[in-house]
Amino acid sequence: MKKTLVTAIAATLLAALAACGGGSDSASGKTLRVGTLSDSKPNAYQENGTFTGFDNELLKAIAAKENLKLEFVATDFSALLGQVANGTFDIGSSAISQTEARKKTVDFSAPYNYQALGIEAKETAGITDENSLAGKRIGVVQGTVSDSWLGSNAPTAQAVRFPNDAAALSALKTGAVDGAVFDQATAEDYAKNNPDAKLKVTKAITTTIPHGFAFKKGNTELIGKINDGLKKVIADGTWVKVHDQFEPNAPVPAEFKAGQ
User: Fold this and answer.
1) Which residues are the signal sequence here (predicted)?
2) Neighbouring C-alpha atoms within 13 Å toward the C-beta of 250
3) For the domain 116-208, what is the CATH superfamily, name and number?
């Protein structure tokens, strides 16, 4: 009886240890939680219940090369980096610009694109460039490069900060703000798909700030896998295919062309 009880306890402990140990890291098949956005076309959005967009489809292709499993979860951009830093998400995916300030909070993958911004307004708003933003209410998503760019380049504009692109777009369409600054591709998508609002991208601003996937500091193993997969999808032309699907009008930087 005593021997049976000991055997049973030992078996239970072994099962528990196996359950705890199985899939405890990316190498053993853990499903990685990816924090992303649900409303930021064409980079990161949800369509018919599926998370898609340039950034997310590129990450899926990278994961396939490295045999990684992904689970996408929607969040607001203003909360995303903090959630990556505290381990809520394993990866952050949403056209995240690699600024020096953000590097203090999270680590990044190798660059996979570059930041471009677009000033957007109604055709009758009288907004043409940063010099015409003075005194006007301009919508930005809190904590984005658009937010910091507005403060640096149009300091007399009144920044109206929103938690996500959808809220900023709604305010722009209803006239609650005079204009907005989005990612360029996002701004162009809004102008194209909201013809009744008569929106126009009045100026595009190109930067040399790279985009990267975000990780909790010190997660070098996972960063290494993502960087390795990124090299593979660039070399075999997958990067260009995904780019052409979601951002066909944007130029392809030389370092992302096939064979690099």
Assistant:
1) 1-18
2) 31
3) Periplasmic binding protein-like II (3.40.190.10)
